Amino acid sequence: MNASAGPLAGVKVLELGTLIAGPFAARFLGEFGAEVVKIEDPNGGDPLRKWRMLYPEAGGTSLWWAVQARNKKSVTVNLKAEEGKEIVRRLASEADIVIENFRPGLLEKLGLGYDVLSAQNPGLVMVRLSGYGQTGPYRDRPGFGSIAESMGGLRHITGYPELPPPRIGISIGDSIAALHAVIGAMMALHHRRANGGKGQVVDVALYEAVFNLMESIVPEYGVYGAVRERTGASLPGIVPSNTYACKDGGLVVGGNSDPIFKRLMTAIGRSDLADDPGLAHNDGRVPRTKEIDEAIGAWLAERTIDEALEVLNAADVPVGRIYSVADMFDDPQYAAREMIQRFKWQGELDIALPNVTPKLSETPGGTRWLGPALGEHTDEVLRGLGYRDDEIASLHERKII
């Protein structure tokens, strides 16, 4: 496994979250060298351990867990017990970053709010992920990524106008929020280290993270009252950018920059459109979207995917087939970039996992170990906090850990 220390070597992260948004943020930091201690309930741990496909199938552990919890240390703690809370307080006193995604107010009820933890560690950065944020009239509502995708505007513009909005097949709202959490944590850490600042709270609302990616919908509505609607596979107002049918499947073609449009039209034998001054710029192409799409569609309908790719790649036009995961495993670009790596998990399973992104030339991230067993690092971490073996044994006996 990758032995690189990573750019975040020496950064200590305490993860108090479950499922997706918080743990994905902590996973990202751990992949680049941070020491991540994940607190889990002794009774079953993070529910993600049992999500989707399991290995072994009967009573096993989620294959997703292997990647979501890689490079993390699992420590089991009963947060309802005062001695369990004390373990968390001691870990937080040494941490640079605490990541949590409980419902707002829960940490305060446990006596583990930022006011308490920062009193003993003024430099602490606490990243808080929740459906609606730590303030506002909705703060106490339960909020999942799917709800955030809806409230943030993504669902409304996704799909075909004659059909109800579909969901994207992954938990994209949680993942978008997690990336915002990582960015916020890094900015707060930089401020503390480079500007002599103190710690602070990074408040990430899942719906706001989705909303942040919604491009021009706010000014378009604010100025013109325009509400962007579902447009199927096309990208509204940016022409041409669509999915088209070939003889044996579909291709995505992005010919929406001015020089690319000219090359695309020339490549498909439509020099009349390539040389039309009215189509030289995007604002002229938008009113003629149907005409342009029909021209591209007619050309592609007579060709296989491979035939079309050969012509359009030669013309330097952005084009691509729609990959399944099986396509990714066979693709030479994925292979050249080592984006799928193989490991041994649980001592016996050959497992393929996605490589770490992004790629840093001098301090790359990597996979040091895969998702740990429940409580695998409890004793080790407690010894590092100064607990004696007899104290640890007592905590085990009393089900504190």
Question: How would you describe this structure to a colleague?
Answer:
With 401 residues, the chain is α/β, with parallel strands linked by helices. 38% of the residues lie in helices and 15% in strands. It has a six-stranded parallel beta sheet, with helices on both faces. Strands 9-10-11 form a three-stranded antiparallel beta sheet, with helices on one face. Strand 1, helix 1 (21-31) and strand 2 form a beta-alpha-beta unit. The longest helix has 23 residues, at 172-194. The radius of gyration is 25 Å and the shape is elongated. The protein starts with 11 loop residues before the first strand and ends with a helix.
Identify the strand order in the major beta sheet: 5-2-1-6-7-8
Overall pLDDT confidence: 96
Q: How much helix, percentage-wise, in residues?
A: 25-40%
CATH superfamily of the largest domain: Crotonobetainyl-coa:carnitine coa-transferase, domain 1
Number of domains: 2
> Major β-sheet, in short?
6 strands, parallel
Radius of gyration: 25 Å
Assign the CATH architecture of the largest domain.
3-Layer(aba) Sandwich
CATH topology of the largest domain: Rossmann fold
Distance between the termini: 29 Å
What would the principal axes of the Cα set say about the shape?
Answer: elongated
Query: Which CATH C-level class of the largest domain is it?
Result: Alpha Beta
Figure out the total of helices: 18
Which structural class best describes the helix and strand composition?
Answer: alpha/beta
